[in-house]
Amino acid sequence: MIDIYGKCGCNCGRCPAFKAHAKTMEDRKRCQNAWNKYLGTNLKKFKWIYCDGCQTPDPWKSGNILPDRGCYLRPCAIKMKITTCAQCSAYPCEELKGRIPGKDFRKRVTQRLGKPILEKDYRAFVEPYEGLKHLQEIRASLSPKEIVQMPEIEPLKAKIVDFPAALPFPRKKQSAFESLYRLIMNILTARTQTYARQELIKRRQQHFLSLLWVFGRYGKFIKKNSSHVVIDNETLGSVPDFKSIIRKRDNTLHSTIRQCFRIFRDYGARAEYVTVKKKERLLRLSFTKRAGGIDALKALKSYVSRLVDTFGEPAYAGAYRYKGESFKRFSMADMRVFMKKGK
Ligand code: SF4
Ligand code: SF4
Hints:
12 helices; single chain; binds iron/sulfur cluster; mainly alpha; about 5% strand
């Protein structure tokens, strides 16, 4: 085995899914068992476990699923024209730290297993993924000249309707709608400091929009002047819109949604999934002052209601998608629905 580091520092050369080690079905089955046991995955099939490696220019050419097609670190490093994240001026960025384990990984695996892991199994199935640890070593070997500066990143091109010149509202209400408009625009254009963050937001745009939509549609202010809207347990269990948000298996949030919650915070939107009684869970959303506070939250509810009243209820199409004119307009931050003719 030789060391071949992926962009994120994971060691493809020692990974059991790497092409050199996953030639037979027995190899792949062994990898599946190890990943389920040590990495906590829930893989049911093993035939597709075969990877050309992260550093291969076009690793999916032969139809492989691996390396992870959803990875947002690899495209970032490719745009930066660097071999690994260790060469990046933004290293270690939030996205890298949030996705890739470091030297504490063994401890975490041991805690989850409830017993120590055999040294040979650690070497074979855990250590290759301690990417942050490997990057640290690579970084220490680089000279300042080898570090590549992250450029200023262009926002994404997005279909956004201009904010109406004059909404028929008093100044304070208009400014709440402007805050909401800015939030949706930020999601759609993804102005970020790194390509990784932009790539992540781009891939999660539907999740963000669908989350905002459900808060606008089903969120309730429980008390007068409450700073947040709440979606109660009963709604969570009875409306299909939440199937892709909350995992049926253990009643927790999908990891993609947890990611969205984390990014929402940077925009001043604080989304939470909290337990109130033993088995009762709520989804909650509040906006900080920067995001327009309670007035912007009221604007969200009022915007969604007006869209539904005018264009009808969209049909939930699964996987964070809705079909219908009202959601289409919401996805373009089209607020002309408040203008006199609703156009
Ligand atoms: S997680 Fe991404 S960057 Fe890391 S090895 Fe896999 S594809 Fe490459
Ligand atoms: S911004 Fe993050 S993901 Fe992108 S190259 Fe730098 S460290 Fe890697």
